Amino acid sequence: MNVSVDYIAIFIQFLVGFGFVATTMVATHYLGPKRKTADKLASFECGIDSQGNARLPFSIKYFLTAILFVMFDVEVIFMYPWAVNFKELGSTGFIEMLLFIGTLLIGFAYIIKRGALKWE
Amino acid sequence: MGISQIIFYMLAAFTLLSALFVVFSKNPIYSVLWLILCFFSIAGHFVMLNAQFLAVVHIIVYSGAIMVLFLFTVMLLNLNSETEPHKPTLLKFAAVLSGGALFLIIIAAVRSTMPAPYVAPQLSEVGYVKNIGMKLYRDYTLPFEVASILFLSAMIGSVVLAKKERFN
């Protein structure tokens, strides 16, 4: 366990990100005018009045899109260590990655063919 | 007590606290949000162990992608309080009894294990992205390729399960 100097930059970035959100939230709370009427406090200020509540079970299609996103997200993770070592691994690494991507492309072709991402 | 030890104890306390809040929150959405914080602090533990790649992947995959799926799963359920199932008292009693028995067994098991002497983790550099890549693509090629088969089956499985079959 060591605390490397390298992490100070990341720590500062976290601090800046968190600090920006916190300051803007506090600042808008104190700076902005407050008009609390029933219309202003509605979830949607304009358009059609909202009906019922938000706790409705929604379509599985969203879930399918999300789960396919996760699949390709994890696939990209595998590419980071490969890309860093691209030169050292040479053609062997390239063929390995081609096989990997090729298998996933079969899956992608299946998804497109079945129209899993189509919104009907 | 060194600075890394202080950071470790703070991180560990934060991890346990957020994990407890996951269990104790009444609202499942809050549970999911606490779980995201828990995952972030676990990523912090990975950084402390010099496993940077794992830390970043943990944030990207778990806090990013997996938690989206958790949130979706929560949303897929009908969470209206009217439809909340009320279990009979006998079932509640049985649940408390079996949970307590499990707790007792866990305590007994922990007490009977001999705590291994603490070994300070060796400061290895295998957790860096470059070294992990070398290991993965040189020595562990087959598991890597098998992972792609796993992805393929997961993709096809999710499409088959979620997509309505059309006969026309």
Notes on the structure:
The complex is a heterodimer of chains A (120) and B (168). Chain A is mostly helical. Chain A folds into 2 domains: 1-34; 58-120. Helix content of chain A is 66%, strand content 0%. In chain A, helix 2 runs antiparallel to helix 3 (86-114). Chain A is flat, with a radius of gyration of 24 Å. The model of chain A has no long low-confidence stretch (mean pLDDT 84). Chain B has helices at 3-24, 28-48, 52-76, 89-112, 129-138, 141-162. Chain B is extended. Chain B has a domain at 1-79: Four Helix Bundle (Hemerythrin (Met), subunit A). The mean pLDDT of chain B is 85. In chain B, 12% of the residues are buried. By secondary structure, chain B is mainly α. Chain B contains 6 helices and no strands. In chain B, helix 1 (3-24) runs antiparallel to helix 2 and helix 2 (28-48) packs antiparallel against helix 3 (52-76). Chains A and B meet through helix 2 and helix 3 of A and helix 1, helix 3, helix 5 and helix 6 of B.
Short description, anyone?
The complex is a heterodimer of chains A (120) and B (168). Chain A is an all-alpha fold and 120 residues long.
Index terms:
heterodimer, A: 120 residues, 2 domains, 0% strand, B: 168 residues, extended
Mean pLDDT of chain A: 84
CATH architecture of the domain at 1-79 in chain B: Up-down Bundle
Largest sheet of chain A: none
What percent strand of chain A?
A: under 5%
Strand content range of chain B? under 5%
Structural class of chain A: mainly alpha
Please report the total strand number of chain A as a whole number. Answer: 0
The rounded distance between the terminal residues' Cα atoms of chain A is 53 Å
Characterize the overall form of chain A. flat
Radius of gyration of chain A: 24 Å
Shape of chain B: extended
Secondary structure tally, helices of chain A:
3
Low-confidence stretches of chain A: none
Q: Over all CA atoms, what is the radius of gyration of chain B?
A: 22 Å
Order of helix and strand elements from N to C terminus of chain B: HHHHHH
